[in-house]
Amino acid sequence: MIIRKELWFGFGLMALIVLSVLILTPWGNLFDAHLSHADLGVLGLLMLALIVVAIMLGFPTAFTLMGMGVFFAWLAYRSVNPQLAVNQVLDLFVQRTYGVMSNDVLIAIPLFLFMGYLVERAQLIDRLFHSLHLATSRVPGSLAVASIVTCAIFATATGIVGAVVTLMGLLAFPAMLKAGYNIKVAAGAITAGGCLGILIPPSVLLIVYGATAGVSVVQLYAGAFFPGFMLAFLYIGYIIVLAKWKPNLMPPLAESEQRVPLPPHAQALARRGRHPLATSWRALMGDAPGVSKRTVFAQFFVSLLPALAIAAIIVVAYRIATAPEAQVSTAGLVEAGGAIAADASQSEQSSGLIGAPDTEEENKPGELAPPPGAQEEKKPAAAEPTSATPAPPDAAAAPAKRLPAPPWFYVLLAVCVGTILLIYWLWNWERLEVFKLLLASFFPLALLILAVLGSIVVGLATPAEAAAVGAFGGFVLAAIYRFIAHWRDRPQSEASIGVVLARTLKEFGRIMKESCFLTAKTSAMVCWLFVGSGIFSAAFALLGGQEIIEKWVLSLNMTPLQFMILAQLIIFILGWPLEWTEIIIIFMPIFIPLLPHFGIDPLFFGLLVALNLQTAFLSPPVAMAAFYLKGVSPPHVTLNQIFAGMMPFMGIQIIALILLYMFPGIGLWLPSVMYAK
Amino acid sequence: MQKTLLFVDKVSTWVGHAFSWFIVALTLHVSWEVFRRYAMDSPRAWAFDVMIMFYGALFMMAGAYTLAKNGHVRGDVLYGFFRPRTQATIDLILFIVFFLPGVFALTWAGFFYAQESWHINEHSNITYEGPPVYPFKAIIPLAGAILLVQGIVEIIRCVICIKQGYWPSREEDVEEVDVDKLKEELNVKDEDIEKLDVYVTREKPR
Prior knowledge:
The complex is a heterodimer of chains A (677) and B (206). Chain A has helices at 2-24, 27-30, 37-57, 61-80, 85-101, 108-121, 125-135, 142-158, 161-178, 183-199, 204-213, 217-245, 255-258, 264-270, 276-285, 293-322, 334-353, 359-362, 374-386, 393-400, 407-426, 429-458, 463-489, 497-543, 545-555, 560-574, 580-591, 602-618, 624-632, 639-662, 665-675. With 677 residues, chain A is mainly α. At the A-B interface, helix 1, helix 3, helix 4, helix 5 and helix 6 of A face helix 1, helix 2, helix 3, helix 4 and helix 5 of B.
């Protein structure tokens, strides 16, 4: 029944548009090539209306855009000079196409897609879910929370909504049903979580928006970071509150299922003491407890990892906070500049290499001027040979003085020390096991994402370069994970590493092939859309459709708020018949030129659009995520149940949209800090 | 007839597959370049041009392949509900009205664009002494021509479908979401999913 109604609604809409096109077309002037300026503008609007109809008919959008763009561009040129029209259109088209082919923003798309396909085929989602489930087992609604976190991480790394939802539907959905979770809650958690990958960078949507709107992808990534996480945290918060409020929807796990099974060596050690760090240290120092020293050392080292990581963060933060850059302007000497450069490169190296060990001595609070450490002493020696005329010692020494650490550094230091204390206060053998599991599944993926994002946001690499390195990382990740999987599955009879390697290589070849082909198909899909829209938007501009829309919108005298709501509403409605690629590539060029009139930052607008389009994935009746989940759920789970489960999450998305609008700082703070915008 | 169609499909697919390996080349090239810049401090000026060329050739040449696998994005709201005959009729008309003129224009214009570039022995002007760009520009008419041939095959497919009432078959290819493969990957069998129905129906009366 629903299908029928939709069909009629669609046809009605199309008929309406076609009818108005037929009435409004300046037929009389169309054939004798005497189109006036106003006629052309009307034609531009008609073209826009027709494209909606043509897209809804279901023909591949890229070619619809191409055909229509060529025809209308020809009409526009013909009204000026009928003889040259054909050549002008052809030139315009091919130049636009070449523009897409040599677009340095769009390169990142195939690379990020490739990274996503490789990471997906590393097959680490079940480990990820398992370890996150154990890690959150005491949280109310633990399975749903673990599902959302798994979805968020995996969807962020891969960006493939369909695969994530299907995999989680096979993995987490049964687990949740068995644990007695409400079907709607379980379905909602999976579908909503799977869609997070669209928003959280590195997402392809933001690249497409950046390329269309001419906004820096780097800033978009920096801006979308916090809204994306805010949304994830809102989801998790909702689940936890709901689980507390109505425990019958998400019954807590049985005590037996919360317990983490300890391996024998850990059990033996656990009998000797509750705290892994202290116990393994004692075991290392003296009495041998029947466990090999190597195993004990491994426990000790893994236990120490969080402290090492946090110490490294402190060191890096200290280096950044006290970098003696501010003095460059006062010491205008070339030699001094050279000294600074040498110092900077040296300090970078040292923080990476020896970083952790000398945390203690580097970060004694209270000492505003740090004692001249090894780096400071080495520095003038390194600088002097490079400079022809050696600078006077005090001039060289002055810029070398590190700045006093700003107050925020001490806040960070306190937080970090607090975190370390908290971690080790809570540390026990079970948590150590969970931590090991996370180390093998969660952290590599999180690290990959953070490294890619970090290098983009900090400015070490362009998005395309970071994407390539990320793809390479996905490459390595897939190889390692597949090798480990084969190593574990190996039959007892053939334990040789060569056999396992050969098997891994064979599978890896298949993975590479599939990932390559999928990358080619998907990037062709997105980029040919750009080829089509290149000529289409050019025709629209030639006809002056943009001008008419601008005049019309300005004549409405809307406030920025009204305009914003209207724009978001239109985008939301367009999300029903169209895919996000089409919406951004075809309709964003119409909205973007209007933004300056209302004083809206295109960057901010982009964040709202990304958040908004994410909602489209969850809004029935075309919510893709729901259909993927339905495809792998038990037969008695109905689509309506899944839709009903998605509703609260859609509500949260709208709340997030409003929050972002009310407090633009959520999105704009990071870019403004990073790029002083 | 079906044989000819599948043959053209195969050619398009083969070309697409061949060029899809450019993504590996692109990944390695860019990663190596980043490594050179930061670790070896010797970036190469032409690296950027090569990067662009890998990317451009990759997606342009995969256009026909994607069409052969029905992979170009469609507005699926209504189309999915039509009967195959209706689908084929709409497609047939729009292939002739939009696809043929558009892609033909691209191929035609691309040919002269590339020819001109070839004649003047054009080199990239992004960097000093950039690499030649005429082979890259030649990709446009080449990709257009393959796409055009594939488009004609699709038109014939539409006609066949209108005649016989169902879509003629296509060759299999990797899919983004291959449910069976994902099931295999996680060791989930259909019976397992069906067994879960107990939990679903149990909840119903409440």
